[in-house]
Design goal:
This is DUF488 domain-containing protein. InterPro entries: DUF488 (IPR007438), UCP024492 (IPR014519). The chain is an alpha/beta fold. It has one domain: Cobalt-precorrin-4 Transmethylase, domain 1 (3-Layer(aba) Sandwich). It is about 45% helix and about 15% strand. It has 6 helices and 5 strands. It has a 5-stranded parallel β-sheet with strand order 3-2-4-1-5, sandwiched between helices. Helix 3 runs antiparallel to helix 4 and helix 5 crosses helix 6. The mean pLDDT is about 95.
Length: about 150
Amino acid sequence: MSDPTLFTIGYEQASSSAVLDELAQAGVELLVDVRAVAASRRAGFSKTLLAAGVAERGIGYLHLRGLGTPAEGRQAARSGQHATMQRIFAAHMATPTAQEQLDELIGLVEAGRRVCLLCFERHPEHCHRLIVANLVCERVEVPVTHLMAAPL
């Protein structure tokens, strides 16, 4: 059985150190931040601090903003309207920027990198990162593992 090379993780309800521990334990080589806005009120999850934290563990960091959910999709997700979020995100994924960044992500996975998609929501079924992972899997035959850091 081959090692999975595509992971996802959400940092909701987890500390920065718990997320970093989970990434390191899984052997992740590259953390791909798929948030439209790589900022967070949560300690350790803004772009600069997150990139520094993963670098300390020997993990690369890449922010693919074009694979993030537009503002109206994030609002729908916050209000529990997951079907609306998914519809908005699907339309967004048809844009040239999103397609270009999806191609970049697929290239990294095809190259054999152990990639993990990061967003906020703890459960992948409520997050657009599941949609992104499924789009990757349509083009690259690779299993997906959804990581969960220990909760606070």
